[in-house]
Amino acid sequence: MLGGAHHDAVERTFRTVAPLSGGPQAHVIGRTETLGLLDATMVNCQASAAHAFDDTHLATVIHPAGPIAGPLLAEAERTATTGAEFLTALAIGIEIACRAASMLMTPPAEPELGWYMTGIACPIGAAAAIAHLRGLSEDHTVMALGLAATESAGFRQTHGSMCTSLVPAQAARAGYLAALLAEQGVTAKEETLEGARGFADSFAAKAHLPHATDGLGERWEMQANMAKPYPCGIVIHPALDGCLEITRQPGFNAAKITRVSLSVDPLCLYLCDRPTPPDSQLAQVSLQHWVAATLVRGAAGIAEGNEAAVADPDIQAVRGRIEAKPDEKVGRASAIVRVEQSDGASFEHHVDHGIGSLERPMSPAQLDAKFMAQALMALPEADATAVLQRCKDMPQLKNAADVAKVMMG
Question: Which CATH number fits the domain that encloses residue 285?
Answer without folding.
Answer: 3.30.1330.120
